[in-house]
Each structure stands twice: as C-alpha cells, then as structure tokens.
Amino acid sequence: HETFPIYYHPDVLRVITNAVRWAAPGDGPVPVFGHAKPLEHI
User: Fold this and answer.
1) Mapped to the 3 state alphabet, what secondary structure does 1-42 carry?
2) Contact, 22 vs 28, CB < 8 A?
3) What is the pLDDT of residue 22?
4) Phi-psi region of 33 (alpha: psi -120 to 50; beta: other; left: phi over 0)
5) What's the pLDDT score for residue 1?
6) Residue 13 CA: distances (Å) to CA of 7, 24, 25, 27, 32
7) How many Å separate Cα 38 from the centre of its chain?
8) CA-CA distance, 28 to 19, in Å (whole number)?
9) pLDDT at position 28, please?
10) pLDDT tens, 1-42?
11) What are the C-alpha distances in Å from 40 to residues 32, 34, 36, 37?
C-alpha cells in the first residue's frame, strides 16, 4: 500500500464508502428480552 496508493483511487474510495454504509446498523425494530414463556416446566 505504500508503493501503490490504491486507497486514494476514487473508485476504491467509493467501494469502501458503500461497504461501510451497507454494514452500518439500521433503524430496525428494537429487540425485546425477558418476555418469552419457558419451553418446559422446571
């Protein structure tokens, strides 16, 4: 990477930016924990 600065190429920067946006958490539903019925009686 020092001899060939590929990370400064505009197309590579676009791919990295798109990957980061794709992998970022979204505004999905909030998980609810602790309200499940037990599977069997203990």
Assistant:
1) CCCCCHHHCHHHHHHHHHHHHHHCCCCCCCCCCCCCCCCCCC
2) no
3) 94
4) beta
5) 56
6) 6, 17, 20, 25, 37
7) 32
8) 19
9) 85
10) 567 788 889 999 999 999 999 999 888 888 888 888 889 988
11) 21, 16, 12, 9
> Which amino acid is residue 34, in one-letter code?
G
The Cα 36–Cα 7 span in angstroms is 48
Beta-carbon contacts of residue 7 (< 8 Å; ≥ 6 apart): 1, 13, 16
Place of tokens 């992998």: 23
